């Protein structure tokens, strides 16, 4: 049974509430030059290049939280590093009542890639974070193999980066019991739009001890470090409510039935198979990641022949919140090889 120091919890809540009241606009929107593409499903943010190369990086974030995690480390952030190499585009998923499935998000990403290619004629390097990486794998395979369906031109991806992206979801095997015991399944039936709090509750119930560990860690930090900690906490509370159809697909098909690992996930009538990907691919995993442990990433490493694996310290987003010099050097060295790949 969990126990908490209520005085410590109350102090943490007070400091977090004060932070929320004083925070400014999200960096991902404040730093964007413009919204260059807009639909009912997503818009596209653009960040100018700080380098001389004629390349474009297209980032696909997770659908569960805002893209702000890519900007939290200030001037040292992931996007700022990419801007040294070329233009950066960021997909910003919208809240919608349209009963979407992942296949719809894949088709949306194909449209965005078509838009970027037509307007810029640049090499496109695709980057996916968490389940955004699953979307990127499907798109890269289908675009590079020519199974485009409605798209008029053969597109291609020059490289692929997968940031803590799961492929084997078997570690979520106890999820059914959690959902049944806490009554979330019956609550979900009543709504077409699943509130983001439900997703947060689900992750809390899967890893309940993390909350106490988080509070203890916060009070062990210096006052300056606590500000970054609170920004991460605010990011964890961010995100959008998602359509029930999308939520149920992820829970039922991915987490419980593990269809992508079992090669049963189809897009445009074809199985999504990473073995067909032949572009340079960088796979990043975090040693202490409980949401996407190494065991869930190993299949991607084995299936994608032209892949490089980078191991980082910490949990699921630690390498984005506080990127180490070692990680940046490793990723930049891989990028240099990928950008020059023919």
UniProtKB/TrEMBL annotation:
Q: Which UniProt keywords apply?
A: Hydrolase
Residue ranges annotated for the AB hydrolase-1 domain, each copy included: 237-322
Cite the GO molecular-function annotations of the record. hydrolase activity
Q: Name one Pfam family in it.
A: Abhydrolase_1
- Asked if the record carries the keyword Flavoprotein, the reply is no
- PANTHER family according to UniProt: POLY(3-HYDROXYALKANOATE) POLYMERASE SUBUNIT PHAC, POLY-3-HYDROXYBUTYRATE SYNTHASE
Q: Report the protein name in the record.
A: PhaC superfamily alpha/beta hydrolase domain protein
Q: Which organism is it from?
A: Candidatus Megaera venefica
Q: Give the organism's phylogenetic lineage.
A: Bacteria, Pseudomonadati, Pseudomonadota, Alphaproteobacteria, Rickettsiales
